[in-house]
Design goal:
Layout lengths: L8 E4 L1 E4 L2 E9 L16 H30 L5 H10 L2 H14 L3 H17 L4 H5 L1 H16 L13 E5 L4 H5 L6 E6 L7 H9 L3 E3 L13 E5 L4 E4 L3 H22 L15 E6 L5 H6 L5 E5 L13 H15 L4 E4 L26 H7 L1 H14 L5 E5 L5 H20 L9 E6 L2 H5 L1 H5 L4 E4 L1 H9 L17 H16 L3 E4 L10 H7 L3 E4 L4 H8 L4 H12 L4 H13 L3 H4 L1
Parallel strand pairs: 3-4, 4-5, 5-6, 9-10, 9-16, 10-11, 11-12, 12-13, 13-14, 14-15, 15-16
Antiparallel strand pairs: 1-8, 2-6, 3-7, 7-8
Helix pairs in contact: 1-2, 1-3, 1-6, 2-6, 3-4, 4-6, 11-13, 13-14, 19-21
């Protein structure tokens, strides 16, 4: 516990993976490789290029060997992310940009690579979407692996760490996390990282508590220091006193008890006390997350973000690669359905291989369905791949950012043409594949009754719907207080969409952040949503509340909420009437 010399200190970061860990710190050296730029002479250029390419080859060999080793010890379940890094090591843009810098700026190999990585980083930092922005960290990790080969730095093998410890590091790569022995490593904390970094995704999939994005935590902690971390809230306590230790120990015991109790709900129906059923599904990007779907009782995938297939690579995935990804996901989640959202990029979401012009207002520009319709050479292979995969399991296909009736009709026309092509070649597919639209912009809300006549289901993306309806950039810290999921305008929009869907006899689903927030569950239930899709770990708590709710009470609550005049009034109503009854699931 804390002494006069080492006083108690708390750090707050990003809650990356839930769970509480109490143990001794083990500092793993994962600091960035120091790089000094130096000018080279003309006769040194070829030698520097060779040194760079040799380092890339050595990094690739190392990663391939590591992949083989992990697969032999743990199986292939989580290796997709390492494949992403191997693709980056083959990336022609990364190589060509670095070689160009060596040749034309007469800069040494390390300095040239560092400049290339900086360009990539700036590109990714400009992306608004949290998940896609975090893919820039993969470029950094691959770049650091190459730099280590160039300068001859050998990192400590994380597999050799002994004892029950909490890893403390500047950053951890996906390969590091995959090598963690859960019998010895009970959690980790890092300076860098976000909730959607690959290290965080893997930590959640493996059930390792983690807090990331702590900025300078490594400069304050030494080997053997006492640590306590809460990956559910993002806090880390350094050298706790006795009172804090007892508090965390009690919280750990309570968390583990709740986790065991929630796990008992896995195979129980998502049903209210008065017998009303809704579907609880998962939002995912990687096949590695399929295990998390099963563990948390998901009834399938409500949102498969296909952007992950297009990121961190120099060329676009072809039809066959996309087909394999959809097929493998279907096999992993059988017998449940897979809802595939077509490519949602453009504007601020950069994808190599799609030549997009700079736009003054990318949020309102050429993106999502607009971009797909403008680029049939990209859109058609994705649709063909999804249709072919539909012969092997239940697939639903839906389109992002629909704003007019013409857009969905144009997409359906292309699908009809592809169906004819496949049928003419005797290629199997689901002739009755269900089609849907994302409701994310106010125009789609206002014509929801017309859109409902064109599709089989609605899926509401509340993140964008809130942003576009309230005209608020959700990443602007000065406006964050105005980003209110329960603003009356948002709730009335949701009501309009559900009403239009049910009048047309189709399902109304929701896949934004609201779906996974237990506080909002009674409202979404009372509004009449048929399906909620969320991060898989959120499902047990939402199900816990749902099984203690009645539909009639939720509908009565919605009537009160819809008559309120402000988000603050609605929040107060929710916390007063709901939180008191379900505090153990909402905390």
């Amino acid at each position: 516990m804390a002494s006069a010399k080492n006083s108690i200190r708390q750090f707050n970061g990003v809650a990356a993976s839930p769970g509480i860990a109490i143990g001794l710190a083990k500092v793993a050296d994962r600091t960035k490789v120091p790089v000094t730029e130096s000018i080279i002479t003309a006769d040194q250029v070829q030698a520097e290029i060779t040194r760079f390419l040799n380092a890339v080859a050595a990094a690739k060999d190392e990663l391939q060997s590591l992949k083989i080793q992990i697969e032999a010890e743990q199986g292939a379940e989580h290796l997709y992310i390492l494949d992403t890094h191997l693709l980056l090591l083959d990336d022609s843009m990364l190589k060509e940009e670095t070689i160009h810098c060596i040749e034309h700026q007469n800069l040494n190999a390390e300095g040239s690579l560092k400049r290339t990585l900086r360009k990539f980083k700036e590109l990714f930092d400009s992306i608004e979407d949290d998940y896609l922005r975090e893919r820039g960290s993969d470029v950094d990790i691959v770049g650091e692996r190459i730099l280590r080969k160039m300068v001859g730095i050998v990192q400590e093998d994380i597999k050799e760490i002994d004892g029950k410890v909490i890893i403390v590091a500047h950053d951890l790569s996906p390969a590091d996390v995959l090598q963690l022995d859960k019998n010895r490593v009970i959690g980790f904390v890092t300076d860098l990282g976000g909730k959607t970094s690959h290290a965080a995704i893997l930590a959640r999939a493996l059930g390792v508590p983690a807090v990331v994005g702590l900025e300078t935590v490594t400069s304050h902690i030494a080997d053997g220091d006492h640590l306590m971390l809460d990956g559910s809230v993002g806090s880390v306590v350094h050298n706790p006193d006795n009172e804090t230790f007892r508090d965390y120990l009690a919280r750990k015991q309570y968390y583990e008890y709740c986790d065991r109790e929630l796990a008992k709900l896995r195979d129980l129906p998502a049903e209210t006390t008065d017998g009303h059923r809704i579907k609880l599904k998962g939002n995912i990007e990687f096949i590695e997350e399929a295990d998390s779907l099963t563990r948390h009782g998901a009834e399938g995938v409500g949102l498969f973000r296909t952007e992950m297939l297009f990121m961190n690579r120099a060329t676009l995935p072809d039809e066959e690669e996309q087909f394999q990804a959809y097929f493998e996901m279907l096999q992993a989640i059988k017998p449940h359905p897979l809802s595939i959202r077509t490519l949602d990029v453009g504007g601020d979401k950069f994808v190599p291989g799609l030549n997009l012009a700079d736009e003054l207002n990318p949020a309102l520009g050429l993106r999502a369905i607009r971009l797909s319709l403008r680029n049939p050479e990209t859109f058609r292979p994705q649709l063909r791949a999804a249709l072919r995969a539909s012969a092997h399991g239940k697939i639903r296909l839906f389109f992002p950012m629909i704003s007019t009736i013409g857009e969905i009709r144009a997409a359906k026309k292309i699908i009809a043409e592809i169906k004819d092509e496949l049928a003419s070649k005797n290629i199997n597919f689901d002739h009755n594949i269900e089609l849907g639209v994302m409701i994310e912009v106010p125009s789609a809300v206002l014509i929801a009754d017309q859109l409902a006549g064109e599709v089989d289901f609605f899926s509401i993306g509340t993140n964008d719907l809130i942003q576009y309806t309230l005209a608020i950039d959700r990443t602007n810290e000065h406006l964050s207080h105005l980003y209110q999921p329960v603003d009356p305008a948002i709730l009335k929009s949701l009501e309009m969409v559900v009403t239009a869907a049910h009048r047309a006899g189709i399902e109304a689903c929701i896949c934004g952040e609201m779906a996974g927030d237990p506080l909002y569950l009674p409202i979404l239930l009372g509004l009449g949503f048929d399906e909620l899709s969320m991060s898989p770990p959120s499902i047990p708590r939402v199900k816990s509340i749902l099984r203690r709710c009645s539909l009639s009470a939720a509908e009565s609550l919605v009537q009160k909420v819809l008559s309120a005049e402000s988000a603050a009034e609605i929040e107060a109503l929710l916390k007063g009437e709901i939180a008191a009854s379900f505090s153990d699931s909402i905390d």
